Amino acid sequence: MQLIDTDDRSISGARTWPGDLLPTLNRVVVNCKSVGVVDIISIEENEYGNDDYLIANVKVHPLPKEDTDNNTNHRSSEELDEMAQQVIEDYQQVRSIYINSASLANNELPKFARSAVETLPTFSCDDIHNHKYFWKLIETWQMLCNTIRQAKQTNLQSIVNELSVTFAMQNKGPLQLPVKRDSLPIEVVSQLESLEETAAQDFIELGMEPTLDFQEIISLTDHWDRVEKLSHMIRREKLRLEAKESLIRALLGEEYAPPTNMDHDSTFFD
Asked: Phi/psi zone of residue 74: left (φ > 0), alpha (ψ -120 to 50 degrees), beta?
């Protein structure tokens, strides 16, 4: 990020009701803009504290130009059109499943996340060829990934809190909230850590990580490569949702999950 300007919003001179002077509240708001992806060359040697930021020497990779260029990996315009059509169809299918499948949405997302997914915009094939709208599609998909991650974190935190309070209530004396993990028995701490590790692994396998895949898209310089990468990401989620919805219909009945035009080559994922 490149620093554009700063706004010092520190507060000094405040006093308590009896008149005692409070320490200065240091707060600085900064406005930045993205300048690209970097390679870390080295970390400066220093006596860093726990709250200090590391200082690094880096090599910057500029962001790709926004104007359309002619290098498309020697692929024909017809191939790009076909890829664009596939991207839009898969995206619309994912959007439709999250919005219309009550059974799957209830299983995958908390209420706040379902409301957020319902506001996802629609796109057309022409948007794939237009750099401005193509990046808008990428940004929208990243927003969905962030929503899914937040949903998973919320569900995990709910389980961790419930277990922590349950075990804390078994101790004598008043219940101390929030429950400090170091106050719990070692076997309970191990159980919570195991839950968190399993949830993290499950999320990685989900393929909806909202950072690394998008850094790769930014670092690509060819429009075809960016479209192909995004197509792989969206199709992976589409196949996962269709497989889960097919399983829901098989277990609960057709009335719980409307049909979603399963592909013949769809694969079941956890």
From this structure: left
